[in-house]
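Much of what follows relies on a compact textual record of a protein's fold. A record is reproduced here so that you can trace the correspondence yourselves:
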Amino acid sequence: MLRHFQSLLSELYDTEQHLDVLDYLVTDHRILAMLEDSRAEREIEEKLLICECEGELALSLYLAPELLERLKTHDPRDWLGQRNFADFCTVIEGISHFNYVVWNASADKSVTLHELEMQAEVDKYVGTLAVLASQPNSTLTESLFDRLFNDPEFDTDLEPDELERYRSASAFAAKFCRSLARRFPHGLLRPGMLDELRDFYRLPQPDKVSHICSATYT
């Protein structure tokens, strides 16, 4: 399932898949605590761990075993709905982070945390559309934008600077996805939409923000 969703995002953005996410997957919370060297970290179900040393990048993607078990029982590839939507988004966020860091690192590009979160929010939106393309009877498309961007919930344990980063990333992603929804209605991933998504993916953070905020775009 994880490979499927990794390939789905890679195909959407027409990017080469340099690393297999399963080779970097951690599902044991004890290993997560050891890698973070802390027992005080807030409990989470997804986290990308990054360590850069002497020009080498080390990655691990933690996904909670309970999360994966729930998705195994209610596989989004069979049906994506209210029951498994939140878990699906959590997995997409983790894979989005992994893919984006790896792709940029392969091109010797740096990535900001704000940029990482903004891209993940966009990936939840377009990833859902891609999955629902094979589920024509789903009604999730009609409420997708509201579910993702209207009054989003954030972890109450976030530090103020973290909370501001998540809020800002969500707001920028919402503006971008709202424009996509307006210009490419009915939740269809048309060629023009894919072209724009792929161009957007390759922009550095300042250009992403400029693209979203430009008068001609809005």
Residues 160-183 form the longest helix (24 residues). The chain has one domain: 2-16+75-213. The longest strand covers residues 46-53.
